């Protein structure tokens, strides 16, 4: 395809400046987003085995509710039932707060039955590690609220608009050479060419994924604006959402049908779907509801993990569902498809692993984009004297390394701290927050202090050490039970340790490559470390990698 060179230059500038403006925030969100594919597994991994009461057969859930209600009448307001999922206790409820929103101080009650049918209850502080990583994914770690919205979500909405512009302009810029150079990874033509080929390959091969992510994040961030527009131009006087009429006389939990009947009703609602968890809300209010997570591995589901079905818990009349054909209309199905493609909630565990790697490749796309921007603006050596790199380039390099690699190292340190701090602090959820932000700002400061090249090597090594320390912690927990830490008890917990080990190898190898480039690559590179003058230092530099 032929496009005029002046037009291509315009699209190239748009691609460069939109990418560099939003790249660092998008890196953090994509890296954290990859981890949120296993959000429940991470929270379960960070919880001591004693903090999750064992599951029971579905046939015993009615007995469990009756016995728990007799001892804890507050259950009559609302509770959650988890079915055959060892990441949760079978019956949970909150005396105050908790539930779906992030609450670092939440105290959760749990109940189950032992082998003799005796009621067991306990109060725990549930780990919010998975939810905090999800917050990092949605806000890039930017704190604060604007009205009822999170500031970070709004910022990421703007960043996603730039992200979409970068995608479109990047594709147009590549069109003339797309077919010829798409799968070319030309290592022999220098590091810059290799990074450019890698950047192009990651972007083009995952283009549909990136377009879906960009559009859906804009919708998530500015949904109020879209709803107002729909109300103004489409629905007019009609309400955008149909609310069920309230009960004339509130009922109480004694009128609730058997849980087994509610589960059977939900499972009959759509073929192939199975109830996964049931959250009863406002049981003593005029608007009672049970929100049921419905799972179907063969379907494209709207939620992060499952579809949703809402029933009136006393009459079992359906109120809302995200998966029943015809109930949500054409636009509802379009929205469901886009949301499902954003969350990666299809294909079961293989689908979640696919999105995990897609998230990491997206993070790599933004990081490589920043590296290319920096390389393009450095001063190249033209004689025997090394040039002084522009201040803006040095600052941008330090920001890129400090924020991108700093966020990766901070998450790794927080995961490691999750087990070691549990025995030493009253509230592990606050410890997660302190651990992440202290490590993150320390990494940014270190990057500005020591320079991008040294910081990149050291932060990659720090991440590798933190990751390899996770499986070592599990070994220590097995050998020394009195330490107050715990070893993996389930296959999903063990997978967290194994993935951490793979990350350790990956980061260690990346640190070695970065070190070799810093000491033995082009001396005028922004990533070069200038050799010291004396012979002893020269020997030290040679063996640094």
TrEMBL record:
InterPro entries: PepSY-ass_TM
Superkingdom in the source lineage: Bacteria
Spans traversing the lipid bilayer: 14-38, 153-179, 200-222, 353-374, 395-418, 430-449, 461-487, 493-511
Keyword field: Membrane, Transmembrane, Transmembrane helix
Protein name: PepSY domain-containing protein
Organism expressing this protein natively: Shewanella yunxiaonensis
